[in-house]
Amino acid sequence: MTNKETHYTAEDIQVLEGLEAVRVRPGMYIGSTSSRGLHHLVWEIVDNSIDEALAGYATTIDVTVDENDVVTVRDDGRGMPVGIHEKTGVSTVETIFTVLHAGGKFGGGAYKVSGGLHGVGASVVNALSEWLEVKVISGGKIYFMRFENGGHVKESLHVIGDAKEGESGSEVRFKADPTIFLEGTEYDYQTLFERFRQIAFLNKGIKINYYYLKGEKKEHTFCYTGGLKEYVAYLNRNKNVLHDEIIYIEGFDQETNITVEIAMQYNDSYAPSIYSFCNNINTVEGGTHEEGFRAAMNRIINKYARDNNFIKKDEESLQSDDIKEGLTAIISIKHPNPQYEGQTKGKLGNAEVKKVVSDILAQGLERFLLEHPSDAKEIIEKTITASKARVAARKARELTRRKNALEVSSLPGKLADCSSKDASISEIYIVEGNSAGGSAKQGRDSTFQAILPLRGKILNVEKARLHRIFDNAEIRSMITAFGCGVGDEIDLSKLRYHKIVIMTDADVDGAHIATLMLTFLYRYLKPLIEGGYVYLAMPPLFKIQKGNAIRYAYSDEECEEYKREFVNNYKIQRYKGLGEMNPEQLWETTLDPKYRTLKQVTIEDAMDADNAFSILMGDEVEPRRNFIVENAHYATLDI
Length: 639
Ligand code: TTJ
Known about the structure:
Mean pLDDT: 86
Radius of gyration: 28 Å
Bound molecules: ligand TTJ
Shape: globular
């Protein structure tokens, strides 16, 4: 009998109530029902195959997204258990897909590594799917089962054929429920690509075949035998590295069952790129593994510098910031029972982790420095240069503070502030150019909108040292206007505006200025981006007018649409710059909360943002040219 729909047992009803709870409050399980939540379904299913690979039983994972938004995930592991589950009385496969939080409990002893932040279980995916099918190959047989309508069993587990000799594995196919995912069920090629690449970097040797069959068919295989070493090489690919050998340290702590893996390499830039992971999840808020990393780095680098006379007895020790400068590092730990805390649950909280990471790193790093004296020399000299720059920067900062204290009002003169003192409703528009600034000042609603016009291009922060950045008048105006401080001293409770809107012309120069601005914010005011306070204004590209009817178009397509609407006898104005708009037009199109479009700037993938910045701002010409050529279609050229 395969069709169970007609008679329910008490247990069935309990199960269905569980899955129904997921459908009533999907956000509680997958964060949101936006595109982000949709992608969560894929992470959730793929995590299971990763676990099987980490347990040593699967080598290859295939992920296919087809024309109809159906996702198939397959691995060559042992196959999910097909026997009857003791507690539920139905097959373990069915249990995995119908009982909330069943994941992990059915495993053969190995802990669930990928869980943690996602870790809500395959049943949640089932609950949010139009239909879901499972295939298991094990013990010489092929098993199949199907669910429909958010997890209702349509066909319970049954044999559909014989397996090939020695073959085993698991396969899940599902179609997300469009009545749940209101932004649609279409997966983004790039989002999946980047996550699969990251998973492959973080788990050396695992092979992920990715097939994206929607539109122009694409496929890609990710497999990195060098793991984190290759990850660091990749992150540094457009930078000048200071030593050829990537520092790589791994260790396992028997007592706590924690695995630690760290790779790092210095480059000649000033910003650190340090990323930490626990169980393959990026811990964006850091935590105890990063604390352990910092402690060991500080101790061992200082010890080596002193032992080898780079720092004299009476000289100051190197600080964390000096040691971080230009360091690209990945810290990846695997923990059997991770605890996350912090605002976005992105901070690892387990106290025991600090010492485990610190001990393993200290030992490995000390050994690396001893065995690679010329690399060690490059590294220590870099950190000493950084410490000298830091002392100079401190002096420069003290200078700016004293200046501010002397002024009657510390707010910059060019700022047209808003009258509201309530930061939660206040906005500041950073506007390129004085003429646009003038229009914005006249067009705005001054109760809650402040305007800060900036002159020309702000300093290229990647190339400049910290102390020079604080000399720059434009940068100082921004910092004082925001009111929240900068760098390590940032205090978001003092932020004077909860919307910081960057408004530049919709041309190549404007895009460049916006990039410079974002670079600065990313490097020195990152919490503002992380907190979702930063936006890009989207001024229209065209005005289409017929008689009294006016339409503003924000893209070429939209312009074509309005042309069709008006048929003939219309006038088109192409805005070359914000300065061409009068105050009323600027208000209507770009400032008025009722009609404007703001694009929120996120650090969805800080690593890629970092890379784009380095390519555009760094010293290397070749990658910059390639980047611009590859992305040239994003720029709107003047007709
Ligand atoms: C657990 O321990 C006994 C042998 O099978 C192990 C297991 O469950 N392996 C496993 C599960 N491999 N792959 C999965 C799996 C794959 C996908 C795509 C989805 C799910 C929910 C599990």
